[in-house]
Design goal:
- This protein is an alpha+beta fold and 342 residues long.
- It has 12 helices and 13 strands.
- The radius of gyration is 22 Å and the shape is globular.
Length: 342
């Protein structure tokens, strides 16, 4: 959501950058998390570096992160930034979703756009807000003020070589570990699926959903960017796009098998889904009036039933193999292209 807000803020400043470009070229696409022990919420915000800073640098702007001690101080800081002509991105909408703040009045009422408000409108900030920016843990009153102190080059983002696009800078060096970090996370998660973790432990299920949903989103952005005209000058961009598409599709399908919403309309729909689909976890309808066909678990996203059978475990395991092969194929192609660019 922070990247969506950043894209909107840049557009308002006259800087046109696609979401796919910001996510892929900053390295955000490849920071896919996996942990055997961390909770899902921690994993959701895990980043080895702030890719948001990398994205603003690519767009030739700067972002100043702030987090005051109370809502009053935070609102005062936002007023100062917006009065200076800066746009602010902050998680001020429901469920910590980000918006773009254009101005804040003396009463703490902001003029903002966001997922709940596509046209500029009023939002009261006096009650405070909380959320997380990439590479920052969730906290209250956090925000990012965007400064445009440098002129924008009409030609767009200069790209010295492939490493500046697909590889994430760590310190002063450009290294391949950015992509490898995501690939290794996907491999660790597929091993957990093959071991049956999501059907034994609902905490593991939540962690796996974070991994595969973020892999689907990130590699989907990489796929679209690599297939765009902006990446046309790259050697073998089309092959990288194809491999990213395979990984995106397989990750998305595995995520769906781990959280299938096909039966949420009614008990009848749930029965049909359980009978006709290979998924192992089904979201329950709110008014279920019969005995669920398996073990019921309570997750952050809602109630679900785990239908644990030998055939469903085997289907999950086979799909995990497909995801892992797709991840390794993408990694090999990045290795070969990266070797040519050096």
């Amino acid at each position: 959501m922070a990247f969506h807000a950043l894209q909107a803020a840049l557009a308002a400043m006259g800087i046109e950058r696609s979401l796919d470009s910001l996510v892929t070229r900053s390295g955000e696409a490849f920071w896919v998390p996996w942990s055997e022990t961390a909770d899902a919420e921690t994993m959701r915000y895990t980043r080895m570096m702030s890719t948001l800073f990398r994205a603003t640098d690519l767009a030739k702007v700067r972002i100043e992160i702030g987090g005051e001690d109370d809502a009053g101080s935070a609102i005062a800081a936002l007023r100062q930034h917006t009065s200076a002509g800066r746009l602010v991105i902050a998680p001020v909408f429901s469920k910590g979703r980000f918006g773009v703040i254009q101005s804040v009045d003396a009463n703490g009422v902001a003029r903002a756009v966001g997922p709940d408000q596509l046209e500029p409108g009023s939002i009261d900030l006096s009650g405070g807000w909380s959320g997380a920016l990439p590479a920052y843990p969730p906290r209250k009153w956090i925000y990012g003020a965007i400064r445009r102190d440098r002129p924008i080059k009409p030609a767009g983002i200069p790209v010295p070589d492939l490493a500046g696009i697909l590889f994430v800078p760590l310190g002063d060096d450009i290294e391949i570990r950015g992509v490898c970090f995501g690939i290794e996370a996907v491999r660790g998660a597929t091993e957990a699926v093959r071991a049956g973790a999501p059907l034994r432990d609902h905490a593991a299920l939540e962690r796996l959903l974070v991994t595969f949903e973020q892999a689907e989103f990130g590699f989907g952005c990489a796929e679209r960017w690599l297939a765009s005209k902006e990446a046309a000058h790259l050697w073998d961009a089309a092959e990288l796009a194809r491999l990213a598409r395979s990984l995106r599709a397989a990750s998305g399908e595995l995520a769906e098998r781990l959280w299938d919403s096909a039966g949420t309309d009614s008990a009848l729909a749930l029965g049909r889904a359980v009978k006709g689909r290979k998924s192992a976890v089904f979201e329950l309808p709110a008014d279920l009036d019969r005995e669920p066909p398996g073990r019921v678990v309570e997750l952050l996203r809602g109630r679900a039933v785990i239908v644990d059978t030998r055939s469903r475990r085997a289907a999950l395991s086979r799909l995990a193999d497909v995801v892992e092969r797709a991840a390794l194929a993408f990694a090999r192609e990045v290795d070969s292209v990266g070797a040519l660019s050096r």
